[in-house]
Design a protein that fits this description.
The structure is a homodimer of 332-residue chains. Chain A is α/β, with parallel strands linked by helices and 332 residues long. Chain A has 3 domains: 58 residues, no CATH class; 210 residues, Rossmann fold (3-Layer(aba) Sandwich), CATH 3.40.50.300; 47 residues, no CATH class. In chain A, 56% of the residues lie in helices and 12% in strands. Chain A contains 13 helices and 7 strands. Chain A has a 7-stranded parallel beta sheet, with helices on both faces. In chain A, helix 5 links the parallel strand 2 and strand 3. At the A-B interface, helix 1, helix 3, helix 7, helix 11 and helix 12 of A face helix 1, helix 3, helix 7, helix 11 and helix 12 of B.
Chain lengths: 332, 332
């Protein structure tokens, strides 16, 4: 019997009632049950897998919006404003603030607490910040799993906020149904110097702090750049929306642009294509992880890995020869 | 027969003479052959795997030194100076400048060209800059493979230079035998705000631009921080060396600190432990990649993945159930 299923069964037998009740409470939107699930995901707790698998049939209803941009572009303010607007329209909202620990994002946890207090009286908004633990590739996956939990908990809109400085952050927003890339006038980050990968993930460009000098020039630069992108269908070029999130100016137009994109992607089948692409990547990652776990499972697996690594370190074997010996252990 | 070995045999049969000659030229230190190998690694060329496997027995002689620090700490100047000092001592030197494309590292390619010209008359120094292609996890692996090629080409010292802003860069320097973390006085980056992961990888701290005001205070801060690190053996605490790379001041002490560390790690067996840890990680990565390639190999594998991703997207199946079907395809 496959090891993974084994583990699921063992946990299921042990905690059957508890996991069932936990799922029921998450589906009912219980904040403490949701928080506990997120902690389990962050801590790589063994309960996270069976929990997610059971919650899975209740997911697929939330619309996930990624919000990214350089430090200082006003992401938190815009995300809070978007959340309030969706709440006013009667939608349940979840916010995931991803905070890769770096000198550039210090103070995010404090800010998060202040934001939670601002929304504390509204049970329709759930905010959670996630920090880097171990590798960032793992953070993208954890963020995706947390989005599933919020989805199962009945959040109709899930906002993922992350600072757009590296490939990791791009991987995080790539899991969204719609990605907003924030730019601000006069930050010295002309469109030419923008990270290419960041431009490519943008479904909607938001010129925030649009009351600052240079907004017209920035919009012209963006338009010129977007002209260069070859598109079969010119209507699929990302729209550019101007906002001043601190005052709320332009927010209505932004929500309209998001909803228009959502309707169009659904009608054209693009949303489905994107969702399937997302799951192809996730399944490939899971597959790699599961097989490696089995090949390296137990003390025999670990001691084989130790021995082979030693032989490679001593140049008695090449790395590919060593990998074939590990493959033989799982019978392929 | 395993697919991976198949592919190796196919290439070997086709290009047997060519790859043999290519390896021979790399071992002889031919710069063009080395450059071509690095390009093959960067481009994920099918020839890279069999080439590396054949070169592997000629590797394990180079000492790999990672150099990292925030932008503006003088990494390139220090690396150039170290390279010149090792050259003066008769060692062949390779430099890999890793340049994650980001707003913070613009202009690196131009700088690299200028640096290459400075060393152009010295065939004992090889410089290559590597930029982000695809995911950065892949960049750490590619950097490691390039270090192997330079090792096989007879470089006795390989310097890897990367800007220390993210987890990716930490992964890159973790493959080194010895990692220097550069800090400079008065940059506002007090030791308290330094990225924790960066502190942990440091084998030697270098206070560069030590002629700037605040060097004493910075050294006191570092010493205070290092006191907090619990160590079984206080002698294994990272030493702190002051340099002014632009004038060469302190470089002799830095080279001594590196050579002392190298001798101590070799004598204590720490170097071997570290090398084996490195290969355990590399083998696990390779294993994951090889199995996923097989499970998803060919049009049948791809169409199974498409079908399963569609079923998951439609919530007909959970992700773990889908992964078990993929596992069944490779017979486990």
């Amino acid at each position: 019997m496959p090891h993974g299923v084994d583990a699921v069964h063992a946990i299921a037998a042990m905690d059957f009632v508890e996991i069932d009740e936990w799922c029921a409470r998450i589906r009912a939107g219980d904040t403490r049950a949701v928080s506990r699930a997120i902690t389990a995901i962050e801590d790589h707790d063994a309960a996270a897998e069976p929990l997610l698998e059971r919650l899975f049939s209740s997911t697929g209803h939330a619309y996930v919006i990624g919000v990214t941009g350089a430090p200082g572009t006003g992401k938190s303010t815009l995300v809070d404003r978007l959340a309030a607007d969706y709440r006013a329209a009667g939608k349940a909202v979840g916010i995931i603030a991803v905070d890769p620990t770096s000198p550039y994002t210090g103070g995010a946890i404090l800010g998060d607490r202040i934001r939670m207090q601002a929304h504390a009286t509204d049970s329709g908004i759930f905010i959670r910040s996630m920090a880097t633990r171990g590798c960032l590739g793992g953070l993208a996956r954890a963020t995706s799993d947390v989005a599933l939990v919020l989805d199962a908990a009945g959040k109709q809109i899930v906002l993922i906020e992350t600072v757009g400085v590296g490939q990791d952050e791009i991987d995080i927003v790539r899991l969204a149904d719609c990605t907003l890339v924030l730019v601000v006038p006069g930050m010295g980050d002309d469109v030419q110097s923008m990270k290419a990968g960041l431009m490519e993930v943008a479904d909607i460009f938001v010129i925030n702090k649009a009351d600052y000098e240079g907004a017209d020039r920035l919009e012209q630069q963006l338009a010129a750049m977007l002209q260069l992108v070859p598109e079969a269908d010119a209507t699929s070029r990302p729209p550019v929306v101007r906002t001043t999130a601190s005052t709320g100016a332009g927010m209505e137009a932004l929500v309209s642009a998001i909803e228009e994109l959502r309707a169009r992607d659904k009608a054209s089948g693009k949303h489905r294509v994107r969702t399937i692409e997302h799951w192809k990547e996730r399944l490939t990652d899971l597959l790699e992880e599961q097989i490696a776990q089995r090949a390296l499972h137990g003390s025999k697996g670990q001691s084989l890995l130790d021995t082979l690594a030693g032989e490679v370190a001593d140049r008695k074997k090449g790395p590919y020869t060593a990998v074939h010996e590990l493959l033989a252990r799982v019978g392929i």
